[in-house]
Every structure is written in structure tokens, then in C-alpha cells.
Specification:
This protein is of the alpha/beta class. The chain contains 18 helices and 18 strands. Pfam families: Carb_kinase, YjeF_N.
Length: about 500
């Protein structure tokens, strides 16, 4: 897992690493520039015209080193120097001196910024890095706004978009990047939904600093990548039977809202459950039996919603239960949820209307078994925990809520955050905008429930499900883009296992 450390700690990590390895800070900067260039070469042609805008600090030093390396590889590069009147950092100064004489480097004055007209295909932002702690002003503000106004080209930020604070929400202006290439570990603020338009696509490149140096400044926040997931999966043998793969129950649906529980149930099966049973109102039996014959169905005749009469069923025969999708928030349904939480103490996932009932009846929160998994989207979470000023505040409230109620919060979004009662928070790296479609969250409910039923720990079930969910969305939307729908994601769940080399 990649540690997500504060902007203040980034400098300390770099200093500790170079001291321990006996290398110079300039050598580490060269490593970062080389990692950027290796990534850049895989995506852009040498006939692209690249403008690299460099400040006077270490972020500018990164940009100058990148300019030198790309120019030597044959790219058409021009450097724009900003903040010439400021004393450059030592490594920035050295990289200015190392620029080849034939590489064009222009100093930007007030007038140059105001009347800037250059024929560029790619703009690289290396103006200011993680150290910024106040809104942009002066030449930097004017230049950022000028660059933001340019259209028809690709904009890339090095480490963090200029103007964006590393640990807080933006106040003022910031560079609007199409791609942000963050070194070694993503900066905390890059994961905030408020900053999505500034960050663009987030890429993280390794510059050679291992986990040991990052962990010394751990704040309990981690970025989950592909290499972290395979080891968390259970292994099954040719002698495994459907009981080994778990028996799960999905509870939900109501008149006119059967799709949610149907998708949750199929997602559980596609994730690997040996047996999936659906508890639905009587009005949904035919829908479930016809559309998903692999699932068992339990229902009360002539009912339009789940009610307390369903409590007579033996839930203890199941290894995990997911409750809420499409269930509705009727008083009778709320009565069922109260009885269910009192009765069943196995692994539970609560989603959708189950969460809305808890928000309307907060006294039921005390009935949740320890480490129950709650999967709210942003609005559902605010119904539970109260209004949030911004995403940083929301993440803190998620941590407080998780500790108080001893539950696991899966806060769904672009970088779904999984919060554990011990305060740790894990941010997912998979998924894309095309997953913003009705039913996507219901699928995640089925997937988490499935992993719990297969005997995964609460932590591994949540992490694996969220990662596979996002990866399935990426696979499904590869050719469908905006036309992606939830059932496309379900069909891609098996492919997500193949992508990770898991049978």
C-alpha cells in the first residue's frame, strides 16, 4: 500500500531518503524526472510541441530536468521561466545551469504573460509544488489563468497542479490539468471530489523511495493499487464445493424497485458466491426467478415490500447478508431492519435504503454488529453523519463515525474511501466517470457480501470488492464509454479477476 503523507512530510521523506542512501537531492530529482519522461514517452510523439513552465522552487527544478531529458530524446521542447526575481532553490538553480544551450528557454515578464501566444500541443505545469500555503497571486496567478484559457492542447501537472494545496481544499485559482503525475504517492488533496476538474486523470509514478521511508510519516491513509490486491484473495482448490464459496443472502426490493436487488444478487454470484438467495417482496418473485434463475428466492405472497413478517426466516444459515438495495423506507420495512439487526450477528453489508432507514431511525445504529460494512454515497453519508463543509471534513466525519459505531464505512466516489474503526483510511485507484450510472452501488453491495460469504476478512472483503468493482467498470466502459450501464459492469467482474491473474 502506498502511504499518503502530508505535504509537510514530503520534504522530510526526501531528506531522509537521500541521507540514508548517500545520494544528492539532485540525484533524487533526476530519478523523478526520468520516471516522468519514461511515462511521457509511452503516450506522446516526438513531433509534439511541449511547453514546460517552470517556477523557482523544486517543482520548477523537476520541470527543468524533464525539459533537458525530453529535449535530448528528440522532443520539440521550449522552457518558460517564471519568478526570475526570486532566489531559486539549489536544485532548481543547478538544473537551470544544466539546460543545453540550444534548448529554448524564455523568461516570462508581466507583458509576456499577458500577450503569450505560442504554438504548443502540450503544456507541462512545473510552477509550484506541494509547499504552497496561500492563494496564488501576481505573475503566477496571471499565468495560471492564461494557461487555463488555452484550448485544444493537453495540460499536465507535475506532482500537483499549481495553486492546489497538498492537504486542504482550494482557496483561489489553480492550474486545470488534464493529467496530474504525482511522484511516489498521491497527495491527499488530489483525492478530493472538489478538485476533480483541476487534477484530471491521476497517475502515480515510482521514483525509488521505498515504503520504509514513507511509513515513518504515516497518518494512516493509504492508496490501493493493483499489486496490493492479489495477495488479499483466498485460494480455492479443485476439491472446493459451493459451500466453500459461501452462502449469502441479499435482502431488498419493493414494488417498482426490483432491479437493485436483482443486480446485487447477480453481482454476488459473478464475484464467486457458491449460493445466493434473495429475500424480496412477493411482487418480485417472478422477476427474480425469470431473470436470475441461478439465485434462490424467498418471499411472502402478495407483499409489496419487506416487513416484519420476514423475520421468521432463518438468517443464520447464511455466511453473510447484504441488506437495503431497492428496499424502500416504509415504517414496516424499518421495523424489519430493526428486528434483523437484533437477530442476525453475522457479517452484514448495509446499503441504499437500509442506510436511509438508519438515518431516519438513528437509534438502530446501536444494533449494528461490530465491523458491519456501510456503503453510503456522499448524500447518504451526510444523512447519517450530518452536513459536511467539504471532502476533508467528510473524511474526518467518516473516521469519527466509524470509531464511534465500530463499523466500516465505504464512502463511495471517484476514489472510494474505506474507513476502519482503528482510524485507517484506504483510497481506491480503480474506476472512472462512466461508472456514474444507476445500479453501480447495488453491484458493490453484492460484491462485498460475496467476499464476506467466501470467508474473507472484513478488511480484505471491503478492499477487494471496491478494487474489483472499479476495475470491472474500467473494463466495461473501455468500448461503451458514456453508454455503460450497471449490468455491463456485472458482466465484467470475471474479467477483473483475469486482469489480476486470479483463478
Amino acid at each position: 500500500m502506498l502511504e499518503i503523507i502530508s505535504g509537510i512530510s514530503v520534504k522530510k521523506v526526501d531528506e531522509g531518503f537521500v541521507l540514508d542512501k548517500g545520494i544528492s537531492s539532485h540525484k533524487l530529482m533526476e530519478n523523478a524526472a526520468l520516471a516522468f519522461c519514461n511515462w511521457f514517452e509511452r503516450h506522446y510523439q516526438r513531433n509534439d510541441k511541449v511547453g514546460i513552465f517552470c517556477g523557482h522552487g523544486n517543482n520548477g527544478g523537476d520541470g527543468l530536468a524533464i525539459a533537458r531529458m525530453l529535449w535530448r530524446k528528440g522532443y520539440d521542447v521550449i522552457v518558460f521561466l517564471v519568478g526570475e526575481n526570486n532566489e531559486p532553490s539549489p536544485d532548481c538553480k543547478l538544473n537551470r545551469e544544466l539546460l543545453p544551450d540550444k534548448l529554448p528557454a524564455l523568461s516570462m515578464s508581466h507583458e509576456d504573460i499577458a500577450h503569450m501566444e505560442y504554438d504548443l500541443n502540450i503544456v507541462v505545469d512545473a510552477l509550484l509544488g506541494v509547499g504552497i500555503n496561500r492563494p496564488l497571486e501576481g505573475d503566477y496567478k496571471n499565468l495560471v489563468n492564461k494557461l487555463n484559457s488555452l484550448s485544444g492542447l493537453t495540460k499536465i501537472s507535475i506532482d500537483i497542479p499549481t495553486g492546489l494545496p497538498s492537504d486542504d481544499c482550494l482557496a483561489g485559482d489553480a492550474f486545470i490539468a488534464d493529467i496530474t503525475l504525482s511522484f511516489q504517492s498521491p497527495k491527499f488533496s488530489l483525492l478530493f471530489p472538489e478538485h476533480a476538474n483541476y487534477v484530471g486523470q491521476l497517475k502515480v509514478v515510482d521514483i525509488g523511495i521505498n515504503q520504509f521511508y514513507l511509513s515513518q510519516f504515516s497518518e494512516g491513509k493509504f492508496y490501493v493499487q493493483k499489486k496490493d490486491i492479489a495477495l488479499r484473495h483466498k485460494n480455492f482448490s479443485r476439491f472446493s464445493h459451493k459451500g466453500d464459496f459461501g452462502k449469502v443472502m441479499l435482502v431488498g426490493g419493493s414494488f417498482g424497485s426490483m432491479g437493485a436487488i436483482r443486480m446485487s444478487s447477480e453481482a454476488a454470484l459473478r464475484t464467486g458466491s457458491g449460493l445466493a438467495c434473495c429475500m424480496v417482496p412477493g411482487c418480485g418473485v417472478d422477476i427474480m426467478q425469470v431473470s436470475l434463475p441461478e439465485a434462490q428466492v424467498w418471499a411472502k405472497k402478495d407483499s409489496d415490500c419487506i416487513d416484519a413478517d420476514y423475520l421468521g426466516y432463518n438468517f443464520d444459515r447464511f455466511d453473510a447478508v447484504g441488506v437495503g438495495p431497492g428496499m424502500g423506507t416504509h415504517d414496516t420495512t424499518a421495523e424489519f431492519l430493526r428486528g434483523f439487526l437484533t437477530k442476525y450477528k453475522g457479517p452484514i453489508v448495509v446499503d441504499a435504503d437500509g442506510l436511509n432507514i438508519l438515518a431516519k431511525h438513528p437509534e438502530q445504529l446501536s444494533l449494528l454488529a461490530d465491523r458491519s460494512i456501510l456503503t453510503p454515497h456522499l448524500l447518504e453519508f451526510e444523512r447519517l453523519a450530518g452536513h459536511c463543509k467539504n471532502h476533508k471534513d467528510r473524511l474526518q466525519k467518516a473516521s469519527d463515525f466509524s470509531k464511534k459505531h465500530k463499523v466500516i464505512i465505504v464512502l463511495k466516489g471517484a476514489h472510494t474511501c474505506i474507513t476502519f474503526p482503528d482510524g485507517r483510511q484506504f483510497f481506491n485507484s480503480t474506476g472512472n466517470k462512466h461508472m456514474a450510472t444507476g445500479g453501480s452501488g447495488d453491484i458493490l453491495t453484492g460484491m462485498i457480501t460475496s467476499f464476506l460469504g467466501q470467508g474473507y476478512s472484513f478488511e480484505n472483503a471491503a478492499l477487494c470488492a471496491v478494487f474489483h468493482h472499479g476495475l470491472s467498470g474500467e473494463i466495461a466502459s473501455a468500448d461503451k464509454k458514456r453508454g455503460t450501464i450497471a449490468t455491463d459492469i456485472i458482466k465484467s467482474i470475471p474479467l477483473s479477476y483475469l486482469r489480476l491473474g486470479i483463478e
